[in-house]
Amino acid sequence: MKVLITGAHGKVGRAATQAMKEAGHDVVTTDLTRPGFERKPEGTLKYTMADLTDAGQAYAVVRDVDAVVHVAAIPEPTGNPPHVVFQTNLMATFNVLEAAIRFGVKRFVNISSETVPGFFFPERDFLPDYAPVDENHPIHPQDPYALSKHFGEQLMDAAIARSDIQCISIRPSWVQFEGNYEQNLGPQVRDASVLSPNLWSYIDVYDLADAIVLATESELPGHEVFYIASPDNVGGHDFAEILTKYYGDTIELRSLDRTDASGITSAKAQRMLGWTPKRSWRDYLDSDGRALRK
């Protein structure tokens, strides 16, 4: 397929672009990075700079593709004014999806967020009702980022109601790559009392990229939502033990498929997409949370 990847120069976009190319697809990319004007190396992918909050620019990059992977977004709510986060994320998603519908694009992969239920950047304390968290968890977003991602998923629902497009929304857990494992996850590996709102869950960016390729190639009808998280928790702790130790009975503990289970389950993605995660924090960090290699 000819696949457009938006936000292609970000952490997730770069990995998704490489994985899609290795899967044999014709990849075109877009982002806000200004292109250079030197001679391009052989095999360079087609790149177009575009501000997707502008409908005209969104239409220009979506034309003549078979599938869209929409990664572009402000990735969290704390570094920009709330209205900028919400408007940027929601209007970019609307414009790209609207263009895809008008041009007859058949597959749309929307990169949503683990924050959609509301337990990452809330203005009032909020914890999951149960763990491991799955796609059926109630939705109570508070912050502008989670709200924009929640409404983005609703845009997918509206799209399939009025067109023949197939949509998949992926909710990645906290995304890690070889350059940030030690900084982000090292403290939790050493000490489980270093809490995170996603209950010690994470995802390797290259496992996430594999899931994106599978979602793009999937022929699932309608709109499906999938969490993508590593099956193990940060530090490999006994999940039932640490959940009870640090949260008491505030969070209901549901059945686990392994002792060191993640706080978010990706069982649905493994079942319906055939996704098999291959990487773990153990590939990057030792038992003290220190990097094994640069």
Q: Overview of this structure, please?
A:
It is a single chain. With 294 residues, the chain is an alpha/beta fold. It has a single domain (2-178, 203-231, 264-280), classed as NAD(P)-binding Rossmann-like Domain (Rossmann fold, 3-Layer(aba) Sandwich). The protein is built from eight helices and eleven strands. Strands 3-2-1-4-5-7-10 form a seven-stranded parallel beta sheet, sandwiched between helices. A two-stranded parallel sheet has the order 6-11. A two-stranded parallel sheet has the order 8-9.
Low-confidence stretches: none
User: Numbering strands along the chain, what is their spatial order in the largest sheet?
Assistant: 3-2-1-4-5-7-10
Number of DSSP-assigned strands? 11
Mean pLDDT: 95
In short:
By secondary structure, the protein is an alpha/beta fold. The protein is built from eight helices and eleven strands.
Task: Provide the fold topology.
Layout lengths: L1 E5 L4 H12 L3 E6 L14 E4 L5 H8 L4 E4 L11 H21 L4 E5 L18 E2 L12 H19 L3 E7 L2 E2 L4 H10 L12 E2 H13 L5 E6 L10 H9 L4 E2 L13 H6 L22
Parallel strand pairs: 1-2, 1-4, 2-3, 4-5, 5-7, 6-11, 7-10, 8-9
Protein name: NAD(P)-dependent oxidoreductase
Family: Belongs to the NAD(P)-dependent epimerase/dehydratase family.
Organism: Arthrobacter burdickii
Provide tags for this entry.
294 residues, Rossmann fold, two-stranded parallel sheet, alpha/beta
